[in-house]
Amino acid sequence: MFFISRLILGFATAFAVQAAPILISELSYPTVEHLGAVIAAWTTYGTFRLNSTWSWRIPSVLQAATPQLQLCLVRLVPESPRWLVSKCRVAEARKTLVKYYGDGDELSALVTFEIKEVEESIWIERHTNSEALYVDLVRTPANRKRTFIALVSAGLKRGVALQ
């Protein structure tokens, strides 16, 4: 049972692991973005001393239930503000950030800062990526090290999911 679930999670994780953290960091308020990890840790800690098989079953059931809930609610997730700005839909991005960061205040300093930061980073990417090549990933020793770390960590994540 665990082998099959790890296999399924391994394939699904390849897709979710790329986009989910980025969207969470864009939409969650800075003081609560790590709440999920805290809840998971306390759940595991809370079931640790149970003297039955439920000590491992409860976290496993919650791990299975959470993606099911996410699947049902995915239509309610707003578009990424960064994606909206990159498509010249700044007003929609601002509206999303006002909802999640500004508490309804369109003149919120945090919302203004976030929009400006996203616009600047997209401008920089558009003006520097035109010259970037894949060979740049291995051109210098520092870049080779970074590329190696990224590839090894991604490979290890996939390897763990397929045990």
Automatic annotation (TrEMBL):
A Pfam match: Sugar_tr
Topology with respect to the bilayer: Multi-pass membrane protein
Gene3D superfamilies, alphabetized: MFS general substrate transporter like domains
Transmembrane segments: none
GO molecular function: carbohydrate:proton symporter activity
Signal peptide (from-to): 1-19
Alphabetical keyword list: Membrane, Signal, Transmembrane, Transmembrane helix
Compartments (UniProt record): Membrane
This protein's GO CC annotations: membrane
Protein name from the UniProt record: Major facilitator superfamily (MFS) profile domain-containing protein
Organism: Exophiala spinifera
